[in-house]
């Protein structure tokens, strides 16, 4: 079977918008990284996220919710520029796992981009769990949008909870 690539970036703007409107949220996030124009057009068609979570383990995980049964999870195993980004999608009763090849974009840039295109202004839940010591207050603040409601995971040892609370000062214990 011979396949020809779809010339997405060469479509006229009206056709491009119609094509974007047929895409799922995770597909929109993927194409929004291609160019400033794609980011702008994606922002015009993607639904606003209703929930957002970020968890710091020995890796970083963000989850974006679009309604009650539609979630996208991004998993980053490297802070610099991970070779792959792992994506899990839950839509209604379906669950899919994808592996995206990353083109030299840092985890921090990816997270900021995902928050921007999904229109996340407030992170609903932030969790620090075991082996999260490498995430300093400065790193976490640089990733998060402003005005966050935050939560410390109760699985952290007491001494680490105190360090996180001291560094951020505005956390709610959960």
From TrEMBL:
From which domain of life does this come?
Eukaryota
Entry-linked InterPro entries: Zygotic_Embryogenesis-Asso (IPR053222)
Stated name of the protein: F-box domain-containing protein
Write down the species.
Caenorhabditis remanei
């Amino acid at each position: 079977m011979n396949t020809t690539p779809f010339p997405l970036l060469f479509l006229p703007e009206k056709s491009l918008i119609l094509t974007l409107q047929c895409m799922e949220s995770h597909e929109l996030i993927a194409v929004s990284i291609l160019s400033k124009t794609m980011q702008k057009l994606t922002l015009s068609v993607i639904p606003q996220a209703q929930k957002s979570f970020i968890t710091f383990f020995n890796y970083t995980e963000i989850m974006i919710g679009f309604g009650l049964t539609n979630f996208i999870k991004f998993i980053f195993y490297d802070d610099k520029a991970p070779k792959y980004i792992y994506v899990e999608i839950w839509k209604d009763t379906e669950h899919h796992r994808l592996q995206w090849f990353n083109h030299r974009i840092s985890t921090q840039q990816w997270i900021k981009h995902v928050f921007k295109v999904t229109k996340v202004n407030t992170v609903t839940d932030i969790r620090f769990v075991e082996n999260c010591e490498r995430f300093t207050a400065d790193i976490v603040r640089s990733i998060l949008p402003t005005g966050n409601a935050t939560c410390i995971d109760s699985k952290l040892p007491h001494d680490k909870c105190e360090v996180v609370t001291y560094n951020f000062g505005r956390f709610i214990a959960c």
